[in-house]
Amino acid sequence: MPSSSRKDATPTKEASSGEQDAAPEETATLRQIAILVSALLGVCCLGGVLLAGIAMPFAATAGTSVNAVTSIFEETPSNLGFTEPSEQSVLLAADGTQIARFYAENRVVVSSNQISQHMKNAAVAIEDRRFYKHHGIDVQGLAGAFVNNLAGGATAGGSSITQQYVKNAIIERGRASGNQELIAQATERTIGRKLNEARLAVAIEKKMSKEQILTGYLNLAQFGTAHYGVESAAKHYFSKSAKDLTIPEAAMLAGITQSPARWDPIKHPDAAKTRRDTVLGEMYRNGYISKDELNAAVAVPIQQMLKVSEDLNGCAEAGTAAYFCEYVVNDLLKDSSWGKTRDDRVNKLYRGGLTIQTTLDLNKQKAAYNTLVSNIPVNDRSGIQTSLSSVEPGTGHIVAMAQNTNYGNQSANDRSATKINLNSSQDMRGGVGFQSGSTFKVFTLIQWLKSGYSPGDVVDSNQGTLPRSSWKISCSPKSRDNYRFGNLEGVGGGPMTVLDSTKMSVNGSFVRMANRLDLCDIAQTAKDMGVRRGDSKEWSYAPSMILGANNVTPLSMAVATSTLAAGGQYCAPTSYTEVKDADGKTIITKKPDCRQVLDKSVAHQTTEVLKNVISQGATGEKAQLSGREAAGKTGTANDDTNAWFIGYTPQLATSIWQGHQKGHRSMMNSVINGRFYHEVYGGLFPATIFSQYMTTALSGQPAVAFTSATPGSDTSTGRASSDTASSDTASKTSTAEPTQQPSTAEPSPSQGGGDNSGSTGDDGSGSTGDSSGSTGDRDGDRSDTSDDSGDRDGNDQSRDPREHDSDGQG
After folding, report:
1. Which listed residue, 72, 243, 266, 571, has the most CB atoms within 10 A of its CB?
2. E strands of 214-266, at which residues?
3. First-to-last CA distance in the chain?
4. Crossing angle for the helix pair 441-450 and 519-528, nearest 10 degrees?
5. Do the beta carbons of residue 492 and residue 509 sit within 8 Å?
6. What is the pTM of this model?
7. Sheet bearing 355-358, strands edge to edge
8. With contact defined as beta carbons under 8 Å apart, do 464 and 732 qualify?
9. What's the pLDDT score for residue 193?
């Protein structure tokens, strides 16, 4: 997690009075400057550096040199032009647990008191033993390097820690701004660069204490091929914080900075030990450790020291919450309040040290994933996927989002792996959505009640054909068509109440109910409650819409369900609540975005009806919760291509989808989790998953009852609807050829053959029972909806973890 204080890690900030080092404050003398210039020339010349293009004149004599450079060092800049060090951002669950990290450079900036004194001593001993005595330029070190080079020793540069800090800060500025020219200037081997570096070092010594400079250096320096700053390195190599580093650990890290690849302790442990022991020797020579401490540290093998922690960048670190993580990232990057462009926001995410507080409930997330995979394992033989979204009513907080696939790219060893979020839409790196089947009947029911009808009204439940002229589709008149529909054998037929028709999910009843309404009003009610197509395309308003022809997302169905649970109050789905910058300042606060979209009486009346769906003998009987009231609706699309259950209690709303991510394939005659199923429908796996998940997710919470419907809103008796007669007449007078094919509809699971119980076995596996040969919940939609079929997988190519493009396919 980013540090709450960066005062002693930033070169642009003044040192506070309490942190001033005791070092003298006089600037470099003219004699020191002359020695500096001469030494720089010697170092660069004998090191093979080209002198062409030097940005200042140089005379042969020391006196001339002094005159030439004195003004440069006297005119030190007041604004050094550096930038804050890039720092990793962290994503937190609702309880503060870290979920994932994002970084361009794996760095965690820490303050001085969060770094072991051994680490500071080791860095000074090996890099700049006169650090506390010079004023930014170690002229003795430069002169020593000159003599060493002249004598034929290994080429040395003699840069002080302050100069290295300057160089690293300029490089960091270039990286953060994408300025490659600035990086090149900071790393070129010229005297001009060295002199400018020295000039800025002198300026820094005027502005910052030694402690601040050393801390800044340790936060910027590279301590491995992919680790920047001492805290990140300590976490990686030793799985501990920098404040807890021991003498040998500190010496090893201090030695790496000279050549991170060469001294890599994982790949080259013997070389790393040689380098570590060299640092230990310098620590002893400079009085930082005793002889006994030296001998004890040298005796420790590198392999014994290491306790490596793997560093994952991005949502891959989030494990089973990876898809939720991706949703949060895309949600953030769509918010223009904290960055003018998407590129600005991506840069801040990967360099800004943000702390992002999300809505994820880890207990519910664990329950969601475990329930899904216990019923349909990852890479199940059937090739069937399933997903779950869970939303808190009244806030819109997404508390769980899971699916039975591994996050990543598909491979021979993991054929179902994907980065596509099956719960969300394409613009959130999800898919095109799935046909919702009879779950969409909920919105016809709501519009029926909004229009003044009653659950007790009697309607004709027979299958049949309704002509084009009978439909009202005010927003899309061209969508009107002859519509032929059917019921499952043994279900429906003759007069039925709306309540019983909902309980048994009878197609004929709902098609005739919708025929008396405006289909555009039904669709608008669904949209107002939060339902969204996954592909963001215009809705299909054809009559097949009634039975779930539109491709919608599981998350949006959970949001719509939560609207009913909250008494008609829609709350926009929310994945994060607060974002803080690296200094702990809140830059985004996200409060619930809610509005009343249904009269409370309509919402409560709908809930009273949907409670009956989760009752013995009804299509959703497997969704029952012991000791709790719940309401919901089953759904199955044509040929068992998609199966759903959407349900809720007053505290939690959940949507479960089951089907194939790719294509438009039937789940009939599938072997799922080792058992054969002739038919697969919403009242089987999805309803069972709902019951198991909600039982765990709500464990420990009080059983809250739904608010009763408004007195007088009868849910059991009512008038006979006039469409009982008129719809049959219409079908008989129609001579046009129907454009839709007949379909079957749904009975309850108890009407099917075979063991349909889906009960949890003695082993606690929670897998559904054997429904071989059962007829089960057929959930309505047997109309031809091929216009919305297609590949659910889309473009699942490998992406750079920082791209987060807004046009992800699915």
Report:
1. 571
2. 222-224, 227-228
3. 33
4. 100
5. yes
6. 0.78
7. 98-102, 89-92, 355-358, 576-580, 586-589
8. no
9. 80
